[in-house]
# Entry
Amino acid sequence: MNQIVTVMKLINSTMVLAAPFLALFTLHAVEISPVPEKVIPAILDRQDFQVPDRVQMSGWVGRRIQGNEANRLVKLDATRLLEGYRKRPGRQSWDGEHVGKWLHAATLAWVNTGDPALREKLDYIAAELVKCQMEDGYLGTYVESNRWKSWDVWAHKYNLIGLITYVRYTGNTAPLPACRRMADLLCNTFGEEPGKRDIIKSGPQVGMAPTSVLEPMALLYRLTGEPRYLEFCKYILRAWEQPHGPKIISTLLTTKRVDKIANGKAYEMLSCLNGALEYYRTTGEPQILQACLNAWQDIVDHRLYLTGAASYWEIFHDDYDLPNANNVGETCVTVTWLQFNTQLLRLTGEARFADQLEHVVLNQLLGAQRCDGGAWGYYVQMEGRKPYTTNLDGQCCLSSGPRGVALIPTFAVTTDADGIVINLYDAGTARLNLRDHTPVTLTTETQYPGKEQIRIAVEPAETKSFAVKLRVPAWCPSATMEVNGQKVLARPNADGYVAIQRQWKKGDRIALRLKLEPRLITGDHMNQGKVALMYGPLVLAADEALLGKVSPAKNRGASSAPEAIPLNGIAVASPELAKLKVTPEPAPEEFRTWPGAQVFRIRAVTRKPMPALKTGTALTIRLVPFADAGGTGTRYKVWLPLPRDLYRGNLLLDGKASDSRQDHLDGSMTDEDVETFVTTADGKMAEEDWFAVQLNEPVMVKRVLFAHGKTLPNGGWFDATAGKPRIQVKRTKDGAWETVAELTDYPATTAKNSAEMDGGEQLICKLASPIKVWAIRIVGKPACGDNPQQAFSSCAELQAFSE
Ligand SMILES: [Zn+2]
# Structure
């Protein structure tokens, strides 16, 4: 093992620019066949989920898949994953979820790469986890007196998912009895019979966390044929609809809105919906599929960020309520959304779900994964810095991200009743078996999405008539395709795919060209006055590492070193795409994460005076795909403002700022930059602090944003003990301040406890109705931290919006 690890380390350190290193491992000598299920599903998949050893990708996505395996999954510390089970309780209430999530991701990754080091680790961790099971079947991280009160069923869910995946793909059935004992314990503990517990009350998020165990219970029923596991699934569906339950299915059938389900918590809800679809596959109850399709349509229409993220503060909010930075884009939500789309793709065979998969993979998912695959971000927002970390503590997303990436080979290229379906275009080889068992090899050469050309060699083992279905993405303005140099009509069928039905033989070649061009997305709702750019499937972002520098005017004397152009100092040059002159070019060294990596020149203007540049000076800047933005630790931004005279965003941008202790304006709270802030720190006490912005003319305000400045040992936040900070306005120019709302989402801080508020943390307050204001301020009690002789607060941004 050590030798392999050493080789891996050498490879990893040069991975980014090295050729794909798949060839290092001897791939499984024989194809892996999962342990068959005993129960045939009622609904057969339209598209077949592929065993990941069949699909080897080596383009941009392929590199990310390899980085996930080599730099993350194989490197995770086994002792850390198992510690909460070996010595209960775990270090934190849901620490038990990580090992099951790792087993799921690592099994799929091992099937894909055949890496013996990962297999050794899998065997060890699966066996060690099973050893921690208690006599009665319990396999959680709680002490006995605390069982079944919070995240206990949840951890069992992930242990079942992880171990079932391990058993099915490795063929090592040793952990199967442990799975059955876990499931039996759940069946004996929860139910409607006297003496049993109510599963809804056994965990958080209105019972959505514990009841998401539906997914592995349906899988275990099909694997074992044990009828009581199916009965348990039916119990969960009834439990959902109890008066105190989350009412998932009935709410989706009546309101067709996910934000109306329980408390709207996205990760747990999508986990339940993935379970519901596994149950639907098993039993075929049509209203379950209809409810899930309603959820999908609602999310796509009203609750999806441009990059494919789907929540802020981890919750589904009101229609189009999508702030750019407010704990946006939890990676667990990204991955469960990806899984939801894979389930719907398998069940329906419709290309619209594959379109969403391409979109979320190439933007939000790869944007949450550090380019080398070694680290992940929790909240990956539309602007800010990517919060990449390798530490699992309190970070659910760190073990979710690798699951999403490990799933990609299962749906990238699949089979169906008619032949082959290509969902995701990446260089590589797929060795598939048609449903009649005819082997067909597809070899794809492309630098998509860097280049338009995709060449696919089709090699059936024998000449045979079948269809090759190509997905022409919904964003693509025109696609051309040829087979052996002959043009084929690119007209999609009802399922959304272009099917090339013919007698295929060895040596046949498909040439596909998906026209890549820029698109301008005009911001609406919370992004009025801003635009975003896309290029083909890629969402682009400005990154301060690519903005360049300006030299101060010579007459400014000694300080003539060039100064970096700040991210908040630029606007796009025009609201018209043609005038932006978007031009791709090869990425510079620090952004060259794969051979096809590109950046995109666009015309911009300065948005505020800078040394030697007055407002409105024309510049050329370069944008980078969201997936690579912030990869060097710098700040990035998806939504870019229009030039100042066209900007309709933050209404306070031109206002005059002040605070309750006038001498201490040390930064700015009106520059749309959360990293510069104002504090009231003057070493004195105060009963009340405020941060205000006065305007020259009145504006209609519907929404107010406050960004916390900085948390220091001796203060910096508001003490919310006696009440949350208030929003006050002046309705006339010289009128009196009037309280109109409270920042109800402000954390429950005290004078000494900051509730772990981070610098730049944003809080948004929607007013009950729009108010015409001349001035606006935040008022609250300053906190003293560890020094009761003084107290102060801080503010990074005060912004207001008309919508
Ligand atoms: Zn998470």
Residues 1-23 have pLDDT under 50 and may be disordered. The two ends are 59 Å apart (CA to CA).
